[in-house]
Design a protein that fits this description.
With 152 residues, the chain is of the alpha+beta class. The protein contains six helices and five strands. The protein has two domains: 86 residues, Orthogonal Bundle (Arc Repressor Mutant, subunit A); 49 residues, Dna Ligase, domain 1 (2-Layer Sandwich), CATH 3.30.1490. 45% of the residues lie in helices and 14% in strands.
């Protein structure tokens, strides 16, 4: 997995992208939305809702899980986060302005996740689905294994 040595830069970029998106769509980037996105970007390990709720408590924000789910639904709709279905967890999207499907490489040892966006992989999936006359509404491809750092 590619190491990130600049989490603050990742966080700042994600917050800036979200702020721009909200302005563009005439929506509010509420303090709760801002804090949830900030928590998601603090590292590159997907977070579950109950973990987000606990981390929000640590910064003085008492919220119910349903409120966090609503924030995450908003963020998914606008491409700010991805949901990893197999883990029921959420991960920040590194390119929210580009609307395309990606797949995820998940290390089962260190739990880091890498977003991979190779169009040929997804094109093959779409061609296969077209042959079956199947219209996908959402595709999430997750590949689990052990990253190179954990293999060493």
């Amino acid at each position: 997995m590619k190491p990130c040595n600049h989490h603050e830069r990742c966080i700042d970029t994600a917050l800036h992208n979200a702020q721009d998106l909200c302005i563009k769509h005439n929506m509010h980037f509420t303090p709760l939305r801002r804090q949830v996105l900030k928590l998601i970007w603090q590292n590159h390990i997907p977070l579950k809702v109950h973990t987000i709720v606990e981390k929000l408590k640590l910064v003085g924000m008492e919220v119910k899980p349903i409120s966090v789910y609503r924030v995450l639904d908003f963020m998914q709709e606008y491409g700010l986060v991805h949901k990893l279905t197999s883990q029921n967890s959420f991960l920040g999207c590194s390119h929210p302005s580009i609307n395309h499907n990606c797949y995820f490489i998940i290390c089962q040892v260190c739990y880091k996740v890498e977003e991979a966006c190779q169009e040929d992989v997804l094109n093959n999936i779409h061609m296969s689905l077209d042959k079956k006359n199947f219209l996908p509404k959402h595709i999430t491809l997750e590949i689990q294994g052990i990253c190179q750092e954990c293999q060493n």
